[in-house]
Specification:
Pfam families: Ald_Xan_dh_C, MoCoBD_1, MoCoBD_2. The chain is α+β, with helices and mostly antiparallel strands. The protein is built from 16 helices and 31 strands.
């Protein structure tokens, strides 16, 4: 099924309101004053000039803020890693560059913005450390206390000994620079204060209930006093998993001034909190002359903040992708004077799988073996680390169908063997892998007397198509037209849903939606049996079906009734059911559950300038049953575009003398633009996984990016004979001897 977005009209006509667009009576505007040093303490804050401006209501600092809770536990949101979360305006300590040090609140945004420039702050500066490379020696084993994190498994076999004595082997060090999320919608919170003190908060977040959790705990408010809404989110991709500091600052101002307040961060301030962590990886692979892997060693070192151990699954993929009897994986952190990193699309896998897949390509040249043939030769039918079977795994079909679509069989083995005019042409490929997760969720469904169905859950749509997917699932389950279904999300008062992340929303919330519809159908069937002269009086539930907006006998389709008639007969204005979806963990834990991809890339490299054009991409995806082919393809195309950005453009540059990110704007932080993107072909192989979800679906968000940058890197080598082991692969690196 390929369906256009049900929310599309609202978005293109401007009817969809985002966090900074909700009106409120007598609204105040807050502008954040950002710190200018990296580490130390605030010696003094002088707000006098700001307060003297007409329209300025208050300058809130750590000295005059409202009461906050003191224990770390109250600041931990549902995705917080181990350690002490950042507390905005809590005290005079400076932990990282750009930290908020004050909030100017005024009657107009313009007055607040100008007044913010007049707040005078002096600091006692301490020596900072922001270089991962310079402080690798003080790495530490990380805390395991982060939802979704699994530490590397214990070593299997004798990986080091096997590598030492191998006939064919490779060793490489791979560097991934810092990347920042740059969603179109900047972080914003509009706090609407009711006459009774109730706070209705419109927040840019990937979970309204996570933001409510955070606000109620930090400020000691009852959940009944706080409602958080996020009906529309203009992109997030991990940046909205945790509440960002504008939320706490907006609530502070609303509580202190007893007014409604809006706080919107600037694009520069969007670079002052979490990011994809800087990472250094070392991979060693050994093989027999026929290509059989005999040793896999993958070690990673990543940055974190001084306060928290932000962790990702970086190296574990190397123990799952290829069959091997000897595997050793390692992962450590280095604490730096930076804000805590945070999840960014395909966290851990985007750079962890990249290092492995570039290393596999390097090994293929050592073996003089086709890169795809090497992967197929070491194909894992079970999880190599613990022997678990896959719930489903159609990676082999991805390889075969993707290669056929791309024309991989025509690829010459030697590097620098294809040229057209002044450009060298290269073909590269890589494998992608991501978790197929399912969490806990609730859903409610209300069928109204007019035959319209409203299904609800506190899910989130960050632009990925959640509204549409849930309507499709409900309409399919109820056998009714799509236009008769409406899905409600983005409200903390709705039935509980997990944070929108990890490509798990369809498998989780979608399963809850299907479950509540099944429950509703049974209730409707019971009512239908009680109708006068009911054709279902002596029928069993399995003998009937819901189709065409009604209920009918399977054996006698002409014998049926409309859903409106069922409710009318029962004199019911509406019928409602609720459902709680719990994953079958006893069953699921017996399997390795994952999505897979095979990415094939063509690049053209101008050797004189080192410029790289990605002219053709084929991405073959195995992600279970696809609910909406149109949105799913869009997700994969977006992931491929981001993968090209990771490969060639994106990096936040740090001046470690200042301890500061320097290119904190969209003029200097390079992302892929239309001119960088050419032919992207997406194909979904047939797969249906009833272990991951009752729908057969897995998830298509993250898998679209994983492996793309590696395929680009491998294509660059095939074109030029030059191996680039760090991202982004900018012209200076491509030209390097």
């Amino acid at each position: 099924m390929a369906v256009s977005r049900v929310d599309g009209r609202d978005k293109v006509t401007g009817q969809a309101r985002y966090a900074a667009e909700h009106p409120a009576e007598a609204l105040l505007y807050g502008v954040v004053v950002s710190g200018t040093v990296t580490k130390g303490r605030i010696a003094s804050i002088d707000p006098a000039q700001a307060l003297a401006l007409p329209g300025v209501v208050e300058v809130i600092t750590h000295e005059n803020r409202p009461r906050l809770r003191s224990f770390d536990l109250f600041y931990k949101d549902m995705t917080a890693p181990g350690g002490s979360p950042f507390r905005p305006l809590y005290d005079d300590k400076i932990h990282s560059s750009g930290q908020p040090v004050a909030l100017v609140v005024a009657e107009t945004f313009e007055a607040a913005r100008y007044a913010a420039s007049l707040v005078r702050v002096t600091y006692e500066v301490e020596q900072h450390e922001t270089s991962l490379v310079e402080h690798m020696e003080r790495s530490h084993k990380p805390s395991r206390l982060k939802a979704g994190y699994t530490p590397p498994p214990e070593p299997k076999g004798f990986a080091d000994e096997m590598w030492d004595k191998a006939v064919v082997r490779m060793e490489g060090e791979y560097y991934s620079g810092v990347e920042h999320h740059n969603p179109l919608e900047m972080f914003a919170s509009t706090v609407v204060r009711g006459d009774d003190g109730h706070l209705t908060i419109y927040d840019k977040t990937q979970s309204s209930q996570n933001s409510r959790w955070y606000v109620s705990h930090v400020f000691g408010l009852s959940k009944d006093k706080v409602t958080v809404r996020n009906p529309y989110v203009g992109g997030a991709f991990g940046s909205g998993l945790r509440p960002q500091y504008q939320l706490a600052l907006a609530v502070m101002a609303a509580l202190k001034l007893e007014r409604s307040v809006r706080v919107v961060l600037t694009r520069q301030q969007m670079f002052s909190f979490g990011h994809r962590p800087e990472t250094i990886q070392r991979v060693r692979l050994a093989a027999r002359p026929d290509g059989t892997l005999t040793s896999i060693i993958h070690e990673a070192l990543a940055e974190t903040s001084r306060n928290e151990d932000y962790v990702e699954v970086v190296v574990n993929w190397s123990g799952q992708l290829y069959a091997c009897e000897h595997i050793r994986l390692g992962y450590k952190l280095v604490a730096l004077d930076r804000f805590s990193p945070m999840d960014m699309r395909a966290p851990g896998a985007a750079h962890g799988v990249h290092a492995l897949e570039v290393a596999m390509d390097e090994l293929s040249y050592e073996l003089k073996m086709d890169p795809l043939a090497l992967r197929l030769h070491n194909y894992a039918d079970i999880d190599p680390t613990d022997g678990l079977p896959y719930s489903t795994k159609e990676l082999r079909a991805c390889y075969q169908q993707g290669a056929a679509r791309f024309g991989w069989a025509k690829r010459p083995l030697e590097a620098r063997s294809m040229r057209e005019g002044h450009e060298l042409i290269g073909w590269g490929m890589a494998t992608g892998m991501w978790d197929a997760m399912q969490m806990f969720a609730r859903a409610s469904a209300v069928l109204h007397a007019d035959g319209n169905l409203v299904v609800s859950s506190a899910a989130t749509d960050i632009g990925t198509g959640t509204y549409t997917a849930m309507c499709i699932i409900a309409a399919d389950a109820m056998g009714m037209p799509l236009e008769r279904v409406r899905f409600q999300l983005g409200d903390s008062t709705l039935p509980v849903a997990p944070i929108e992340g990890g490509s798990s929303h369809v498998a989780t919330v979608g399963s809850a939606v299907q479950g509540v519809c099944e429950k509703l159908k049974k209730s409707l069937f019971k009512l239908a049996r009680k109708m006068p002269d009911s054709p279902f009086a002596s029928a069993g539930f399995e003998e009937a079906e819901f189709a065409g907006g009604g209920l009918r006998l399977i054996a006698q389709p002409a014998h049926g009734v409309t859903l409106q008639a069922i409710l009318a007969s029962a004199c019911a204005a509406r019928i409602e059911e609720k459902y709680m979806m719990l994953p079958n963990m006893l069953k699921q834990q017996k399997y390795l559950r994952a999505t897979h991809s095979a990415v094939f890339v063509e690049v053209r490299v101008d050797e004189a300038f080192g410029t790289v054009r990605v002219t053709r991409v084929v991405s073959a995806i195995a992600a279970g049953r696809i609910i909406n082919a149109k949105a799913a393809r869009s997700q994969i195309v977006g992931g491929v575009v981001w993968g090209i950005g990771q490969a060639l453009h994106e990096e936040t540059q740090s001046d470690d003398r200042l301890g500061r990110f320097m290119n904190h704007n969209l003029g200097e932080y390079h992302v892929s633009v239309n001119a960088d993107i050419h032919d992207i072909d997406v194909l979904f192989v047939e797969e249906d996984d009833r272990i991951v979800s009752r729908l057969g679906a897995k998830g298509v968000g993250e898998i679209g990016q994983v492996g793309v940058a590696a395929a680009v890197c491998n294509a660059i080598f095939h074109a030029t004979g030059r191996r680039v082991r760090s991202t982004p692969m900018t012209p200076d690196k491509v030209m390097a001897p």
